[in-house]
Design brief:
It is built from 14 helices and two strands. The chain is mainly α and 393 residues long. Residues 1-25 and 369-393 have low confidence and may be disordered.
């Protein structure tokens, strides 16, 4: 009888613990972050095995493994934390963390399979997956950004931008998987289908259209912020808009490194390593911004306008510098870096030319249209006037 009562008491305590919100939260955290940790560990082992077997390449370099591994775990953790405020946005960020981790894992597995069995069907499949693996993480930038916008402005439907982005991403992924040649790291692996050159040109057009969708979240978020006059969510929209510019920096980094490789200023291996490592840093930064934007929608927003202005200035400064460097590298194409002075002059000129545009974008992000102010004995400077609702905090 006493044993039965103890058994019932133990079961009752277990039931209370299981129904405890903290226990449920820990279980959800394990399901959200645990698989990513396992995937990253497997990817690190695969990269180590590929390196020992003599098959190391940019996809298994320590910089890529560290950046994508830490980035995947951090992104999934941020996404799980965001689910308490907005489940849909949080799950999109968690999915991004998973996609980054799987991207890293495929790099290692593809190299191991190719080293062991050559251009076999398995190695060919994994090589094509590695070549197309950047599409899901970049597409989820757009998905998470548009879902954040929908949550902030109260739309019930995602609309055509989300459908267009996902649709183009699906078409591009299939096209890369079946028509693209994985290149030097997987010599001998051929495309699944051999198609005429005009079809390949059409694939490039689809690729450029898909890359252009990365501009949809910042453009739509900035527009929504300017239209939300008198509403308390303007700083939330500004936060999300600033975060959505980080993927644009990743796109500019891709362009910059491509021009640097063409100008013989950097090797293809080095350029690919920097580009993929940049993805591991871009997603946590973007996830933090989206998470802050949707955090506690019923509570007062605590991110000050000064912090937003400094963050926007930093991101826009990086973008301006990248565009200026790209312009300088265009001049050096076919000449190597023998025209260093001309490149430097071009970078400075383009940066100064883009400054007024950057000021206007800054004003659209965190304030009203720029207005000149003049202090005693100083030249007038153009600054963004903070919105009244943002300046109170």
């Amino acid at each position: 009888m006493i044993g039965t009562l103890r058994s019932y008491d133990t079961q009752a305590r277990f039931a209370q613990d299981w129904d405890n919100p903290r226990m449920i939260g820990k279980t959800h955290a394990v399901w959200a972050v645990g698989p990513v940790v396992v995937i990253v560990l497997l990817a690190a082992v695969a990269a180590l095995v590929a390196g020992v077997a003599g098959g190391a390449y940019f996809g298994t370099s320590p910089a890529v493994v560290a950046s994508l591994g830490v980035g995947a775990i951090a992104t999934a953790t941020i996404g799980y934390a965001t689910t308490s405020s907005n489940r849909v946005v949080g799950l999109a960020i968690v999915a991004a963390g998973w996609s980054v981790g799987l991207y890293l894992l495929v790099f290692g597995l593809a190299r191991i399979a190719y080293g062991e069995w050559g251009p076999s069907p398995l190695a060919s499949t994994l090589a094509h997956l590695a070549f197309a693996g950047h599409v899901p993480p970049l597409t989820l930038f757009v998905v998470a950004g548009l879902l954040t916008r929908r949550a902030l402005i109260g739309e019930r439907h995602s609309g055509w931008p989300l459908i267009a982005s996902v649709g183009l991403a699906a078409i591009l992924f299939v096209a890369i998987f079946t028509l693209a040649n994985p290149g030097a790291p997987f010599a001998g692996v051929r495309p699944v289908f051999q198609v005429p050159y005009p079809i390949l040109v059409g694939g490039l057009v689809v690729n450029n259209m898909w890359l252009a969708t990365l501009l949809l979240p910042p453009v739509l978020l900035i527009w929504a912020r300017r239209e939300a006059r008198g509403h308390g969510d303007r700083r939330r929209l500004a936060t999300a808009a600033i975060a959505s510019l980080v993927p644009v920096c990743q796109l500019l980094l891709c362009t910059l490194l491509g021009l640097a490789v063409d100008a013989s200023g950097i090797t293809h291996q080095g350029g690919a390593t920097l580009l993929i490592a940049g993805l591991g840093a871009a997603w946590p930064l973007t996830g933090v911004g989206f998470g802050l934007a949707v955090r506690g929608p019923s509570l007062q927003y605590t991110v000050s306008s000064g912090v937003l202005a400094r963050a926007a200035s930093l991101v826009l400064g990086v973008m301006t510098a990248m565009i200026a460097i790209c312009a300088g590298l265009l001049i050096s194409l076919g000449r190597g870096f023998g025209t260093t002075f001309v490149i430097a002059v071009a970078v400075v000129v383009v940066a100064l030319a883009l400054r007024p545009l950057a000021v206007r974008v800054l004003a659209a992000l965190v304030g009203e249209p720029a207005a000149p102010i003049q202090s005693a004995g100083q030249r007038p400077q153009w600054v963004a006037t903070l919105a009244p609702d943002a300046a109170r905090t």
